[in-house]
Design brief:
Elements lengths: L5 E5 L6 H6 L4 E2 L2 E4 L2 E4 L8 H10 L5 E2 L4 H12 L4 E5 L7 H12 L8 E5 L4 H16 L4 H11 L3 E6 L4 H5 L5 H9 L2 E7 L5 E8 L1 H15 L9 E6 L3 H14 L4 E6 L2 H7 L4 E6 L10
Parallel strand pairs: 1-2, 1-6, 6-7, 11-12
Antiparallel strand pairs: 3-4, 3-5, 8-9, 8-13, 9-10, 11-13
Length: about 300
Amino acid sequence: MDRKFILTCGSTVDLPYDYCQQREIPVIFYTYVLDGVEREDDMERNPGMLEKFYQAMREGAIPQTSQINTERYIDFFTEQLKHGDVLHIAFGSGMSASVNNAMNAARELDGKIDGHRMMVVDSLCSCGGYGLLVDLVADLRDQGMGIEEAADWAVKNCGRIHHQFFSTDLTYFRRSGRMSGATATIATILNICPIMRLNDEGRIIAYDKVRGRANAVKETIRVMRNHVQDGVNYSGKCLICHSDDPVDGERARAEICAEFPKADVHLLKIGTIIGAHCGPGTVAVFFLGDQRTHEDPK
């Protein structure tokens, strides 16, 4: 296959590492600290590790994450640039300022190694939505698209990757500042599920609420029906990610498959970096649709 550029991403795509290897997408790994030990984002490389991670959180552990600094990006990009032009799709700026370090590294390296281009795109995405965008750009790369055209496509279409998610345990959203303590406490006591999404800036918006997780799945599908490309005839990829909640993840998968029978649906796991902020029990759905709005998606 004659590929015109190298596509890279961060480990927060929440795709299995084996899949990224199969698609020839080099990954730069985020790190986190748990129980005083710095660890690398796993991406399902070690069976059972994610389950232990979420169990530790249930028992009171509070993982701490950090940005990737400019020096690490320079080292990573330098190695990739030895083999050709590089397009890096970065973890969204609405979630992390790490993208700025990636862009600083790209400016320093662009054209400096065998004349190869070094480009960075802010995905404005997170978790499986970030993974879906990278996967779609990989498709374009494999079809022979050049680096500038692919980067332009990513910039124009990243806002069309919808992120819908919910959780009844809002402890970690509160700790990360995504939700007020009072709102989180009341929602947990009353078994209320806030329905959340990423807006056009890649920031979390809690825009609605329902009682119970079964209703949260139904509301998520209702919103998907209103915004997905081609409606119920959607035949694109839909990624469903969960943080150690296979029951509700499977419930969402089954109902989405029934509602959108042509969709290419995949059930995946939320990794350690995103999981450190959302905690166990989150279910998220990602799909290609219309442009994400700033506030209420209805």
